[in-house]
Amino acid sequence: MASDWIRRNSRRRIILLDTSAIFMIFENSIRIEDELNRLLGSYDIKIIQEIFNEINLLKEKGSGKQKLLAKYNKGGFSRSLSGVGMNSSIA
């Protein structure tokens, strides 16, 4: 299985989440940390600043399900995902 091969590689992986992935986590109540641990072992979750900007824009100007998901956590998505780092750019 591919995940077995990936897990044996000891390098720490960086996982970049986009807006759709973040919304999917909340919409489907996915425990992202558990799933990534199971599949990858060692990883860091990163969300670039533009994603936070997009979520804030959807909070203000979105409609329907997107607006509801953007408002889901009034404190911001960064506090909802434990161990998430935020980068202003991808190096």
Descriptive notes:
This protein is an alpha/beta fold and 91 residues long. It has a single domain (2-87), classed as Rossmann fold. The chain starts with a helix and ends with a strand. Strands 1-2-3 form a three-stranded parallel beta sheet. Helix 4 packs across helix 5. The model is unreliable at 78-83 and 86-91 (pLDDT under 50). The protein has five helices and three strands.
Brief write-up:
The chain is an alpha/beta fold and 91 residues long. The chain has helices at residues 2-8, 19-27, 32-40, 49-61, 64-71, and strands at 13-16, 43-48, 84-87.
Amino-to-carboxy terminus distance:
30 Å
Largest sheet: 3 strands, parallel
Return Rg in Å: 14 Å
CATH third-tier fold name: Rossmann fold
Overall pLDDT:
75
What overall form do the CA principal axes indicate? elongated
* SSE pattern, N- to C-terminal: HEHHEHHE
User: What would you say the CATH architecture is?
Assistant: 3-Layer(aba) Sandwich
Quote the beta fraction.
15-25%
The CATH homologous superfamily is termed 5'-nuclease
